[in-house]
């Protein structure tokens, strides 16, 4: 039962932070191509680990993470205003590179498949 509640709270926090990033955070360091991939709230609801995916190079990702970290107080205040909790969890932002990693793996698989087809001569032309 408790796990269900934590999952619901995590999902609500994800929605609130996504809306804040797209509409209310005015920091120029935060890239407009930022999305929240996952939120994990600790069992005692004191911390919310927020995983952020940013489209761009390494510098853009670091700047976005710095901008979000500096807006941590605003984000926590808005979570507290929009979600009825006794104590608002402290947001901790993490860079999530799983999307880039999966694209890299996908390209490697395609490359191996093409090389295999070339060796066999199975390629449809």
UniProtKB/TrEMBL annotation:
<dbReference type="GO" id="GO:0043024">
    <property type="term" value="F:ribosomal small subunit binding"/>
</dbReference>
<keyword id="KW-0963">Cytoplasm</keyword>
<keyword id="KW-0690">Ribosome biogenesis</keyword>
<comment type="subunit">
    <text>Monomer. Binds 30S ribosomal subunits, but not 50S ribosomal subunits or 70S ribosomes.</text>
</comment>
<comment type="similarity">
    <text>Belongs to the RbfA family.</text>
</comment>
<dbReference type="InterPro" id="IPR000238">
    <property type="entry name" value="RbfA"/>
</dbReference>
<dbReference type="GO" id="GO:0030490">
    <property type="term" value="P:maturation of SSU-rRNA"/>
</dbReference>
<comment type="function">
    <text>One of several proteins that assist in the late maturation steps of the functional core of the 30S ribosomal subunit. Associates with free 30S ribosomal subunits (but not with 30S subunits that are part of 70S ribosomes or polysomes). Required for efficient processing of 16S rRNA. May interact with the 5'-terminal helix region of 16S rRNA.</text>
</comment>
<dbReference type="GO" id="GO:0005829">
    <property type="term" value="C:cytosol"/>
</dbReference>
<dbReference type="Pfam" id="PF02033">
    <property type="entry name" value="RBFA"/>
</dbReference>
<protein>
    <recommendedName>
        <fullName>Ribosome-binding factor A</fullName>
    </recommendedName>
</protein>
<dbReference type="InterPro" id="IPR023799">
    <property type="entry name" value="RbfA_dom_sf"/>
</dbReference>
<dbReference type="InterPro" id="IPR015946">
    <property type="entry name" value="KH_dom-like_a/b"/>
</dbReference>
């Amino acid at each position: 039962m408790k796990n269900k509640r934590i999952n619901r709270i995590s999902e609500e926090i994800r929605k609130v932070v996504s809306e804040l990033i797209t509409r209310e955070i005015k920091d120029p360091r935060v890239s407009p191509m930022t999305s929240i991939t996952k939120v994990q709230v600790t069992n005692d609801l004191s911390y919310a680990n927020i995983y952020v995916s940013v489209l761009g190079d390494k510098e853009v990702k670091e700047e976005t993470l710095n901008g979000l970290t500096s807006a941590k107080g605003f984000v926590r205040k808005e979570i507290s205003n929009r979600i009825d909790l006794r104590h608002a969890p402290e947001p901790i932002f993490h860079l999530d590179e799983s999307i880039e990693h999966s694209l890299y793996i996908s390209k490697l698989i395609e490359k191996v498949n093409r090389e295999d087809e070339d060796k066999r001569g199975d390629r449809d032309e």
